[in-house]
Specification:
- It is a single chain.
- Helix 2 packs antiparallel against helix 6.
- This protein folds into two domains: 141 residues, no CATH class; 96 residues, Calcium-transporting ATPase, cytoplasmic transduction domain A, CATH 2.70.150.
- Strand 1 and strand 2 form a beta hairpin.
- By secondary structure, the protein is of the alpha+beta class.
- The chain contains seven helices and nine strands.
Length: 252
């Protein structure tokens, strides 16, 4: 029981205090911690532990979704070759991919990855585009065909004219889309953030009023505290938080 409170309560309390100190905001983290402590104070420690466990589950799902998006970006970065064979006035030289500009010509040998987006100007061969487009079968490329960054030349020797810089190529756009999707909040999450602060204030105020109401109407202080704590635990939105986080993790 103590382990459950420490594992679930300490991280939530730290987040709640930082939010309260830095942004002067009362959020769901604070409500969860207070509800769990109130449950323990009136002898319902098990209910408080379950509450913290459910809330910790929602946080774990969120961290897992963020980690999945981060790994997707890292996987895309690994698809990029670091160097390319540029065909210039001095012959074929190995240069950093970042130095390529539109108009440069690069040589693609069998097994080489396309360094940046371009157009085939000579040669023909088959390209493995599965990492970029999902196409499972090799795609034949001949003079005039477009090739995408990070696709693999399976056979033949091709000369490709660069049409985009590294920052504008296919993988760069994919990384940008994944990063934006990771940073962008869904409407349900924005509503959850907006609603969470107001809901926390309402529940805390309602619990205080409930305690005062029961106490002023003649109930013993311990019974009044128990009923106020019951309201806190019952009103804690751990199911809503878990559902919102789960929905957020789906597009990732």
């Amino acid at each position: 029981m103590v382990v459950a409170y420490l594992a679930g309560g300490v991280p939530a309390a730290r987040r709640a205090l930082l939010e309260l100190w830095q942004d002067r905001r009362l959020d769901i983290d604070l409500l969860m911690v207070i509800a769990a402590l109130a449950a323990a104070a009136v002898g319902a420690a098990l209910e408080g532990a379950v509450l913290l466990a459910l809330f910790s589950l929602s946080q774990t799902l969120e961290h897992r979704a963020m980690g999945k998006a981060r790994r997707a970006v890292e996987a895309l970065m690994q698809l990029r070759p670091e160097t390319a064979l540029r065909d210039g006035p001095d012959g074929v030289t190995e240069v950093p991919v970042a130095s390529l500009v539109p108009g440069d010509r690069v040589i693609l040998r069998p097994g080489a990855r396309v360094p940046v987006d371009g157009r085939v100007v000579s040669g023909a061969g088959h390209m493995d585009e599965s990492t970029v487009t999902g196409e499972s079968l090799p795609v034949r490329k001949a003079e005039g065909a477009l090739v995408h960054e990070a696709t693999v030349n399976l056979d033949g020797i091709l000369t490709v004219e660069v049409t985009r810089t590294l920052a504008q190529s296919t993988v760069a756009q994919m990384i940008r889309l994944v990063t934006e999707a990771q940073a962008m909040k869904a409407p349900s999450e924005r509503f959850s953030d907006w609603f969470g602060q107001r809901y926390t204030i309402a529940v805390l105020a309602g619990s205080v009023l409930a305690y005062l109401g029961f106490w002023l109407t003649g109930h013993p202080p311990d019974q009044a505290l128990y009923r106020a704590a019951t309201l806190l635990v019952a009103a804690s939105p751990c199911a809503v938080m878990s559902a919102t986080t789960a929905l957020r993790s789906v597009p990732m």
